[in-house]
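Most newcomers find our protein records easier to grasp once they have seen one. Sequence and backbone structure share a record, each on its own labelled line. To make this concrete, we reproduce a full record directly below:
***
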Amino acid sequence: MIKDFNTPKVVCRPALPLDSTDVFEFTKFIWEGHDYIQYVWNEWFADPHGLLAVAEYGGRAVGMAKVTLVSKGQWWLEGFRVDPNVQGLKIGSRIHEYVNGWWDEYGDGMVRLMTSSERVQVHHLSERTGYHKVGEVNSFSAPALDEKTDSFSTVRPDELNAALDFAITSEPYQLNHNLIDIGWTQMALDEISMKQLIAEEKVFWWHGRGGLFIKWDDNDDDGNKVLGVSLPACKIESVPELLTNIRRFASANGYVSVFGIFYVDPQIVSALTKAGYSLPWDSTAYIFERRHPARP
């Protein structure tokens, strides 16, 4: 058998600064031109804990993926992109296997990813590489409500244990598969992650200790501030009231709207609807996770 040394090979490797030109070029039309990769590339490249990887073919980057350390023992696989002009080379499979191989060597605990419910090939690829589906999520949003509210207070550092216990024992948290979404990243709450969130002043009591919510910050396409909501923790019958009050909190703090990603559960969906939230996504997304084979 004669080898063809002139045929380009697919090579997966850590990203280099010069790869940005290729990556920005093939991602500029993804999501109808609204892909965020160009805005996070430098931050991802400088991340000392995770891995930003590319697939190279014919001297240029044609695929990419990022593994990010979220909290101790919790990792997130994101930025999975393939140049739509490169077909039939299994670029997606190669880059996926490469970053998962890196995580097997350097990671621990659990790694998770989110993908559209319509991307059947990614579902099969994830399952083939040891992932299992956690559940189905959808996004919910509502405009800020220009009404007064004084029912929120920042959780103090000395209230760490009380806030963590309140959050993880709440029915909304359990209905959300014991996970929250922080800036498009799924994670389980533990003492380390909650301590960090409290230090960043992202955790708030509602009506004393009658409820709790966790926030993160985002922007819409016009650059307006969006309040991301990770967890509305309270009695299930009080969730609509808490979510409505969060809309008032958003207005009082300069946000134009509220946004959250929650698992599709009839009780949570009903509460969100009652509080005036709508579903901006045309389809849902799936969350997959994989436990480390050697360092669970």
